[in-house]
Amino acid sequence: MDLAYLWFGIVGFLFIGYFVLDGFDFGVGMALPFLGKDDTDRRVMINTIGPVWDLNETWLIVAGASLFAAFPYWYATLFDGFYLALLLILLALIARGVSFEYRRLGRSDRWKSWFDGMIVVGSAVPALLWGVAFANIIQGVAIDESGTYTGTLFDLLNPYGLLGGLTTLMLFFTHGVQFLALKTDGDLRLRARALAVRSGLVTIVVAAAFLVWTVLQHLDIAHLPVLVGLAAAAAVALIGSWVANRAGAEKAAFGLMAATIALAVASILAALYPNVMPSTTDPAFSLTIENASSSDYTLQVMTWVAVVMMPLVLAYQGFTYWVFRKRVTRASIPVAAH
Fold first, then answer.
1. DSSP state of 327
2. DSSP code of residue 249
3. How is residue 31 annotated by DSSP?
4. Theoretical Cys-Cys bridge with 165: which of 86, 87, 131, 267, CB 3.0 to 4.6 Å?
């Protein structure tokens, strides 16, 4: 197998891992005003992701580094055309991370409310903009013969792009609420499960519209059955997640939502293949897996590093989740944090 195609799959796997793991972090942050009746509730919610949120974000760092090394031309065009959107994502992630650390340092309600708001915004902005970005990559952007993006940020805010953003926003929100139902107890757990039922219905409608629109845009591709199959599997998993949540099967609901996000990203990769950045200016200007990749030697070195390091990273992350597998309760919140 050509190593460029292998690394297209590896980069896709890393982004899948990032969206599945940091996705429920975003959802928990966005759910603060909906489920946090008091400061203790909000502390419980934040503590469910406290030990893992920064570990989850490392998937983005590794994905970005792998993209830079394996597909430098794709990386350059992506950051050229999506610079402002990616900058907003970065600023939102910084604000969210700072808020997790600084919220507990103050005792006044105003102090905590300020950082709670930053957590909400810092979670919602990336959840929306990641969908906008990937939706635009799927349908193609204005790239000239030198690989330079010739459009503007507002060109990215088209109906299909915004629908993609709304889809990831709702997927991550529901994913996060399901995680809270899985990791909390008592009244908060019941309210999280009920909210997941309501948000899940909205997510099904929005995601179905986006998946259908995506398939209709790619009816002419040779591997259409693969795209349709992945999209259909994502839809089945999403509906199954909603049914499981309604039945109170929290682990199944969370697992099926993770599968939904993974299959949705896989369908995006299938819609792109063999392109990585289609050009709407002229198909000849499109970046493909082959013309955007690094040299064979670079990819060979990267492959050996990945073979050694990736199992270790996965094992460490699995161990971390195992250690912090128990539910977070109101009783576990120190009195000083009230």
1. P
2. -
3. T
4. 131
Question: Which two tokens mark 222?
Answer: 């040779």
Residues 113 and 39: beta-carbon distance below 8 Å: no
Encoded tokens for 102: 């600084």
DSSP state of 333: S
Q: Any idea which residue has 């993609």 for tokens?
A: 164
Whole-angstrom distance, CA of residue 82 vs CA of residue 134 = 10
Residue-wise pLDDT tens digits, 7-26: 999 999 999 999 999 999 99
The model's pLDDT over 125-155, given as tens digits with 9 standing for 90+, comes to 999 999 999 999 999 888 988 888 888 778 8
pLDDT per residue as tens digits for the range 155-207: 888 999 999 999 999 999 999 999 999 999 999 999 999 999 999 999 999 99
Structure tokens at 27: 């959802």
Taking residues 79-91, what's their average pLDDT?
90
Q: Which residue(s) pair with 287 in the sheet?
A: 277
If phi > 0 it is left, if psi is from -120 to 50 it is alpha, else beta; for residue 288 that is: beta
| Among candidate residues 9, 7, 2, the one with its CA nearest the CA of residue 266 | 9
For residue 105, give the H/E element and its range: none
Cβ burial 316-333 (10 Å sphere, 16+ → b, else e): ebeeeeeeeeeebeeeeb
At 76 the three-state DSSP class reads: helix
Name the 3-class secondary structure at 229. Answer: helix
Give the pLDDT confidence score for residue 35 in this predicted structure. Answer: 96
Three-class secondary structure of residue 112 per DSSP: helix
How far, in Å, CA of 82 to CA of 68, rounded? 15
Helix boundaries (H) for 153-249: 153-156, 159-183, 186-217, 224-246
- H-helix or E-strand containing 280? none
Alpha carbons 175 and 23: distance in angstroms, whole number: 7
Q: Which tokens sit at 271?
A: 């819609």
Q: Which residues contact 195 (CB under 8 A, 6 or more apart)?
A: 31, 34, 35, 177
Determine the Cα–Cα distance for residues 226 and 218; give it in Å rounded to an integer: 11
Tell me how crowded residue 110 is: count the other CB atoms within 10 A of its CB: 7
Q: Which of 165, 173, 231 is nearest to 25 (CA)?
A: 173
Coil, strand or helix at 108: coil
